[in-house]
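User: Could you go from structure to sequence for me? I need the amino acid at each position, not a summary. Structure tokens:
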């Protein structure tokens, strides 16, 4: 969707006009609108194939957090008819569902560094978010999200899209280790969780003691294992220069800071702690399979889709250089 069409829809459905700027996203059309008085909003126009029940769940989840937790999450604004989800028709005649939410200013964690103490704050916020969602339920949360590593066995057919034989061999070796763990993974504690606590979805401020000033993008929120949610956060603390760290380096050095903050507020069982490193490896594999496949389907968005893929090969090699037992002991 062009910025011009989005601007017209913003006026007609929300009575908002101003400077409009597109954000790079995986599958939605997302824009920041800045009005003449300086107020800023995010207009998210869902992919035409998005299920309304899933969007209803995201709106309900944000409202739940606003009611029960002091967490830096955005608010959802109703359209001119008072609806939290606005139905609109795009230039191709497709029905699209839109939401207008708070724009949270600040620095995206993906664009800055963090200290050990700041990473502890990240872990604390993740734990508080989990606890706040412990009693949240919605029919839309019980869906299959490809990025939920519990569903990695269903992605194995995507291997045919990996052209590089060395990369294919590494992915297969990782899958051969991961798949035998599925019965243990299926037995883990579950609840509704953010499921994408990544550097791209956290707004931070180094000048503030709480560091994390915004949690954005609940598009992957789902009923999944607590350990999966933590593993996704730890994946996003792995060094991007894993090859430079060497096979003997500690890939979880930054992640341990996050985990320390998390455990100060929420528990993890021994079984969860032993499986989390394997789940991190599984997410590395899933990211490679999904990204390579989607980049081939959507070459015009390949730069965004593949932005985190290259760093994953050295990370996967690091895991494969250790025995499964050594991987299980990494967080002890």
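Assistant: Here is the amino acid at each position, in order:
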């Amino acid at each position: 969707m062009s910025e011009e069409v989005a601007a017209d829809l913003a006026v007609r459905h929300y009575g908002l006009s101003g400077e409009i700027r597109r954000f790079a996203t995986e599958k939605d059309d997302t824009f920041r609108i800045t009005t003449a008085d300086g107020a800023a909003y995010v207009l998210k126009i869902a992919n035409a194939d998005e299920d309304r029940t899933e969007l209803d769940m995201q709106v309900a989840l944000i409202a739940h957090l606003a009611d029960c937790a002091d967490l830096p999450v955005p608010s959802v604004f109703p359209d001119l008819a008072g609806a939290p989800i606005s139905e609109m028709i795009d230039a191709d005649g497709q029905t699209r569902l839109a939401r207008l939410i708070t724009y949270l200013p600040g620095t995206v964690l993906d664009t800055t560094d963090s200290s050990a103490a700041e990473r502890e704050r990240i872990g604390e916020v993740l734990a508080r978010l989990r606890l706040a969602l412990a009693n949240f339920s919605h029919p839309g949360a019980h869906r299959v999200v490809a990025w939920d590593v519990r569903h990695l066995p269903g992605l194995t057919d995507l291997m045919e899209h990996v052209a590089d034989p060395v990369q294919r061999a590494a992915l297969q070796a990782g899958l051969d280790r991961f798949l035998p763990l599925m019965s243990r993974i299926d037995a883990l504690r579950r609840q509704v969780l953010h499921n994408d606590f990544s550097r791209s979805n956290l707004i931070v401020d180094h000048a503030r003691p709480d560091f994390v000033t915004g949690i954005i993008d609940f598009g992957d929120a789902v009923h999944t294992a607590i350990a999966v949610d933590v593993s996704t956060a730890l994946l996003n603390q792995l060094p991007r220069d894993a090859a430079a760290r060497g096979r003997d380096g500690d890939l979880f050095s930054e992640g341990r800071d996050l985990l320390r903050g998390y455990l100060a507020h929420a528990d993890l069982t021994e079984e969860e702690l032993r499986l989390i490193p394997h789940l991190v490896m599984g997410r590395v594999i899933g990211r490679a399979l999904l990204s390579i496949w989607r980049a081939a389907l959507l070459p015009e968005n390949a730069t965004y889709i593949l932005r985190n893929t290259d760093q994953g090969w050295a990370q996967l090699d690091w895991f494969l250089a250790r025995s499964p037992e050594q991987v299980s002991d990494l967080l002890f």
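One structural detail worth keeping in mind: The first helix runs from residue 3 to 14.
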